[in-house]
Design a protein that fits this description.
about 20% helix, alpha+beta, 9 strands, about 120 residues
Length: about 120
């Protein structure tokens, strides 16, 4: 459904270090840097981080969450641990199983260094 997701940052180097460590746990290679943006390119889409083009400070979305697909609960745990080690802040509940209308999910949530809320998700069968 999505071609790409882009979020803002106020510190491109700090964001690159954070997302390089975090996304390596879900088999995404280090970002390509293009001026004031970084791009993580996969067969299924693009995730990028950019300094705002308008020169204003980047801010995070209130109520927004970006989810990264994982293959197992262990990959979710590795994602969460790598994110915390790279400067992310845990938020929501600790990593674990959640059940609801979407079924049984294994989830973990973090705030990145700029305050963006991100999630790792494994759909359990």
């Amino acid at each position: 459904m999505f071609s790409h997701v882009m979020i803002g940052t106020n510190d491109l180097d700090k964001s690159k270090a954070f997302y390089d460590a975090l996304l390596a746990t879900v088999d995404v290679r280090s970002a390509r840097v293009d001026g004031h943006r970084i791009f993580y390119i996969t067969k299924t889409g693009v995730f990028s981080v950019s300094k705002p083009i308008d020169g204003e400070p980047a801010t995070h979305a209130n109520g927004g969450t970006i989810g990264f697909a994982c293959h197992s609960p262990e990959q979710v745990e590795a994602w969460h641990a790598a994110g915390v080690a790279a400067g992310g802040k845990p938020c929501e509940n600790p990593p674990g199983v959640r059940e609801g209308a979407a079924g049984k999910l294994y989830l973990a949530y973090l705030r990145d260094p700029d305050g963006n809320k991100i999630c790792a998700m494994h759909r359990m069968v």
